[in-house]
Amino acid sequence: MAETSPIRAVSSAPPQHQQQQQQQQQQQQQQQPSTSAAAYARAQADLVAALTGTAPVPPGFDPDRIEIARNALLRKRAGEIARHWPRLRAELGEGFQVEFAEWAAHRPTGGAWRDGWDFARSLRARAVLTGIAAQELVERELLFRYDGTRPPRRRRAPGMARVNGHLLVQIAGHIRLFRL
């Protein structure tokens, strides 16, 4: 028995080159994701694109269920915009959900505030905004700079604009409304 103990001790410790190979294999596995993980990530991205309406339904998914989920996400997104743009929601009334769903159907979200801003601008371009929503948009544009790509930034300079028979004047972050 005493003779086998040293043999076990020697055989249980792997040689130096085996340890190095094991370390290299572990590093390679950590650096390269497995093909199943990459395929899973790709399938997940395809599903998200289908849910946002920017891509077709991927194979293996029920198109009806994807459409139901997509509509639910659009309603949720419209609700968020209605909270950030209350006068826009009030002016469009019951047509708000329909108008927004048509506009947002193939656009990825940029956040409720920016989506609302882009949506309001598209309605203004089509001459749909005429009342309080037009004033809400002008007020935002007097207070903030927004080019449609970068996040809005607060304006430093004063500004003026006419809307619905009123003159809006922005000075130091405050808006004054004057009737014309």
UniProtKB/TrEMBL annotation:
It holds the Pfam family SCO6045_C. It comes from Nakamurella panacisegetis. Residues 1-39 are annotated as: Disordered. Residues 16-39 have a biased composition (Low complexity). This is SCO6045-like C-terminal domain-containing protein. Residues 41-125 form the SCO6045-like C-terminal domain.
